[in-house]
Target: Exodeoxyribonuclease 7 large subunit
Amino acid sequence: MKQALSLYELNHLVHDVIAIQLPDSIWVQAELSEYRENNGHCFMELIEKDNHLNTPIAKASAKCWRNRWVYIRAGFERITGMHLRAGMKIMLQVHAEFHENYGFSWMIDDIDPTFTLGDMARKRLEIIQVLKDEGVFDLQKQLVIPMFCQRVAVISSVHAAGYGDFCHQMQNNEYGLSFNIELFPAVMQGEQIEKSVIRALNLINERYEEFDVVVIIRGGGATSDMSGFDTLVLAENVANFPLPIITGIGHERDESVLDMISNTRVKTPTAAATFLIEHLAQVYNRVQNASDFIFSYVRERMTREKMRIQHLGGRIPLMFSLVKTSHLRKLDAIESKLNNQVGRLILQQFQYLDRLQMAMLPAIQRKLNKEQYRLQMIEQQVMLSDPTLLLKRGYSITLLNGKVVKDASCLHVGDEIITRVENGEIRSIVK
Model:
């Protein structure tokens, strides 16, 4: 008989080979294709892709037990400010382990957070360079926020505290300014940020003439969620958007690609509200100052002119009093002209209201005529369905116990039936 090893002996042999050949920990670079935790234990699926074809050329699994993983994860999140997620490039320190019962595993000893930070920074720079090469990086900066910016489209999560703070501040501003705010809900955390925000931008774009500005805000959240705003597709959509876009999605030290290419970047949703309020307040102050200046200038000029005329009138002999009268008449004419202009403006508004009323009356009358015609048609249909008309045509109706007989099989011998004709009734006994 052939000498054979037991399965345990074979696995133990593999265990010894791995322990001898791979005794130390190894640093490895890979992309995280799947990440999950179970009862505090970490399980990863690692992948490496071809640089040109973007197809997998190597795969492996790695894991770490809870008592060690809690410290590794905490250190990674503290330094990077991010959670581990699929698609992230990471550098792991692993060692090989082969167990007779459970097979081969790569066991995680450590993670280098600086590698991940560097990879994300590289990707961000690549996105920025692509936008500059396309000539769209500064497109938003060229848009001007309208002076009377009051129609605001907001992209945010429905139940986000930041959105509530934004609306509260806009509606209760110290100047009493009025804003029209419409929410376009979107997912502001996780992997769905890109598709969700683009979907909201498309909805706004269909009605872009109804808005003055778009505000993208995120109420709090971890710094790790900022990665969803660092995508090329989302940046291209924002850069090419026809309306100015204000972003308030990060913290003071965090600046996403979206922040860089937007028209205006603020720190928080509250700061976005403050920006819009102050913008409109400045316009209001400019209008108010201009109005005050015009009023003061006109009043001062008129006072000065009256004093000058009065002074001249006191010095000029009576024979030149016509000159004074002429100047006073000019002032009266100016005042009359102003009054006439105001009167014409009021009259124009009244005429406009009259035209609206005249335009509405025919429409209402047409609606009444249409409904009256519809009632007449219904009345004719009802009249045509009147049984008395059928009786006048020579038809009859047979009744049994007050109910119309439609089927002769329903009658029985001895039943008394009533046949109703146009003039009178005929009672019969069924034989």
Summary: The radius of gyration is 42 Å. Residues 3 and 317 are 146 Å apart (CA to CA). The chain has a mean pLDDT of 84. The chain has three domains: 7-113, 125-283, 389-430.
